[in-house]
Amino acid sequence: MTERIEHHPVLPEPPAADDANFTFNGESYVGRTGEPVAAALLAAGVRELRTSPVAGEPRGLYCGIGHCYECRLWLGPDEETAERVRGCQAPISDGDTYRSTRGCDS
Amino acid sequence: MNGGAVESVHRVDLVVVGGGPAGLSAAARAAEGGLTVVLIEENHQTGGKLRGQLHQENDGEWWIGWTLANDLLARVERAGVRILTDTVAWAIEPGWVVRATSSRGGDAAEIHTRTVLIATGAVEKPMPVEGWTLPGVFTIGGAQILTNTHRVRPGARSVVVGVDPLSLTIARAMKLGGVDVDSIVLPPAQVPDSDPQATLKRLGGLSKLAPYFYMRLGGALMAVPGLAAIAARVLPRSLPLWGIPLRLTTRLVRVVGDDRVTGAEVETVRANGAAVPGSRRVIRTDSVCLSNGLVPLSDLSASLGLEFVTSDSVGAKVPVHSATGATALPGLFLAGNTVGVESAKVSLKQGEIVAGEILATLGNHPFKTRETELGELRQLRADSEFTFEPAIQQGHDEIAALFTQRQEAPLP
User: Fold this and answer.
1) Tens digit of pLDDT per residue, chain B (412 long)?
2) Among B203, B172, B173, which Cα is nearest to B186's?
C-alpha cells in the first residue's frame, strides 16, 4: 500500500530523487533520498514509529515540523553510537538503519 | 544541504535562524545589500510553512507556496547566502554566537556573527482529546506538510477537526491530493468557544475569502448584533465547501482505535453547544487532523531574557520589539510568525523590512524607505485573505510604542 501523491492536479512535480534503501526495525523499505524517514514510512503504511515511556502506547508522526518529538527514532546500526533523530526531520540516505525508540530509551 | 555536519564559522554579518518566508526574504535582501549571511534551517528543505501552502486567491489565482518558496530560495542563493539545512540552532548567546548542530545528530558548531535574526515561525496549539496520541492523528499543519511538501497522504480518509482558515484551506488541499476528506467538524466540548454560535462568529474573520460563499454570508450576518444566535439556529447540518461537508453542528467526542486510528466518534450539538442525546456515532477513518490555531515559537527569544508582552490584539505573548523588528538587545532582530501569527505575505514583507533595518544598523545602507515599507506592511495586513487576529495591526502598533517607551526609559 502506498499513499504517495504521484500526480498532483495543481502543484508542480517535485524534483526527481534517487531511491534510498533503508531499514526500520529490521524491515527493508525504499524511500526517496532526502525525504523525512517518517514520510517514507507513512507512504509504506507504517504509522507506529515508537512506544511511549510510561504505558508503552504506540506513537506516530504528529506535528510534522520537528516540534513535538513524538516521532523520535534511533539512527545508526550500532546501539552504542546510534543518534536519536526526529523521524519527521531526518532526511533519508541510502543504507540508513532506523529503529523505534522504546519505552524508557525514548 | 550540509551532509550531516556543521562546521564552525567565523565571522559573518548576519545569522538568520529559520528558513521560512520571513527568514528567506530577510536573508536575500541583507545579502543583496552586501552582508555576509548564514541561514539556518532545521528541515531538509527551506520554505517553512510557505512551501506547503496551496489555496486560491480572491482573483481565482492559485497561491502555490511550493513555487514561491523555490523562487525565493533561488534569489537567496543568487545573493550568496550560505544556507545550512538539516541544522538546528539550539542556543544564541549575546555577542553574538549561534550554536548549531545537525538534524541527524553529531557535534555542535558555533557561528560568530554581528547580528542575529530570529525567524522561527509558529507552532500549533494542541487539542487534547481521548485518543489523540494514536498513530494517524496529525495536527492540521502536519497534514499540510505531508500532503503538499512531502507528497504523502496522511491517510486514505480523514476527518478534519476545527473550523478556521487553516483547517478549511488545508482540508481542500488534502482533497486535491486525493485524500477522501469525510468532513470538517467542530472540536470537542473542552475546547473553549467551539460551539456553533461562537464558531460562526469567528468565521467573520474569513469573510474576505471570496470562494467561501457561506463564509461571506456568515461574516455579513455577524456584522448585525444579535444575529449570531439566530444564524446558528438556522444553520444547515452540512455546508458544502469544495465538495467537503462542513458540519457546524457536529463535534468530535474522541478518536477511536487500539493501536492506530480506525474512526472518529462524533455527536450532534445544538447552537449553544449542548449535545443532542443519543446522537453519538463513529465515522470510519484512518486519520484525524486536529486544528486548534497557532502560537508564536519564541523559545530562543525567551532564552535571551527579552521582555515579553501579552497582546490580545496580536493574540499571543511576544517579545517587545520595534515596528521593524529590532529588540532591546543591540544586534538581535525578530520577524515573521515568531512575533504574531499572520499570512506568509505579511511574513515576506516583515523579512524585507527587518533586513532593511539590519543593513542600516550595520551602516551598510540608510533605511530611507522605512516608513514607506511599513505603510506597505499595513496595507498587506488590511488586505490579507487570512486574518487570524482582526486587530493585529493595532497590537503591533502598541508593542512598537512600548518598545520606544522602553528605549527612552528602560526597566530597572
Assistant:
1) 344 457 777 799 999 999 999 999 999 999 999 999 999 999 999 999 999 999 988 777 899 999 999 999 999 999 999 999 999 999 999 999 999 998 777 778 899 999 999 999 999 999 999 999 999 999 999 999 999 999 999 999 999 999 988 899 999 999 999 999 999 999 999 999 899 888 877 776 565 554 444 454 555 555 555 555 556 666 777 877 888 999 989 999 999 999 999 999 999 999 889 999 999 999 999 999 999 999 999 999 999 999 999 999 999 999 999 999 999 999 999 999 999 999 999 999 999 999 999 999 999 899 999 999 999 999 999 888 777 788 899 999 999 999 999 999 887 7
2) B203
- Identify the CA nearest to B104 among candidates B120, B89, B86: B86
Domain A22-99 class, CATH top level: alpha beta
Q: Which domains does chain B have, with CATH numbers?
A: 9-123+294-408 (3.50.50.60), 127-290 (3.50.50.60)
Q: What H or E segment, with its residue span, contains residue A43?
A: helix A37-43
Please answer yes or no on whether A67 and B297 come within 8 Å at the CB atom. Answer: yes
The residue extents of the domains of chain A are 22-99
A59/B154 touch (CB, cutoff 8 Å), yes or no = no
Q: What is the ipTM of this complex?
A: 0.97
User: How many degrees, rounded to 5, is the angle at CA B133 between CA B130 and CA B135?
Assistant: 125
Handedness of CA B228, B232, B235, B237 (dihedral sign): positive
Structural contact between residues B22 and B335, judged by C-beta atoms closer than 8 angstroms: yes
Looking at beta carbons, which residues of chain B come within 8 Å of A9? 176
Look at chain A and count its residues: 106
CA distance B260 to B133: 9
**Nearest residue, CB atoms, A47 vs list B67, B86, B260:** B260
Inter-chain residue contact B67 with A12, CB threshold 8 Å = yes
Q: Could you give the CA distance from residue B122 to residue B294 in angstroms, rounded to a whole number?
A: 6
CB contact under 8 A, B105 and A3: no
The answer, for A41 touching chain B at a CB cutoff of 8 Å, is no
User: What's the predicted TM-score (pTM) here?
Assistant: 0.93
* Cα separation, B226 vs B95, whole angstroms: 56
**B259 Cβ under 8 Å from any chain A Cβ:** yes
User: In this complex, is the C-beta atom of B139 within 8 Å of any C-beta atom belonging to chain A?
Assistant: yes
